[in-house]
Amino acid sequence: NAGVTQTPKFQVLKTGQSMTLQCAQDMNHNSMYWYRQDPGMGLRLIYYSASEGTTDKGEVPNGYNVSRLNKREFSLRLESAAPSQTSVYFCASSEIGAVQETQYFGPGTRLLVL
Amino acid sequence: AQSVTQPDIHITVSEGASLELRCNYSYGATPYLFWYVQSPGQGLQLLLKYFSGDTLVQGIKGFEAEFKRSQSSFNLRKPSVHWSDAAEYFCAGVLSGNTPLVFGKGTRLSVIA
Question: Which of A23, A67, A83, B87 has its CA 20 to 30 A from that of A76?
Answer without folding.
Answer: B87
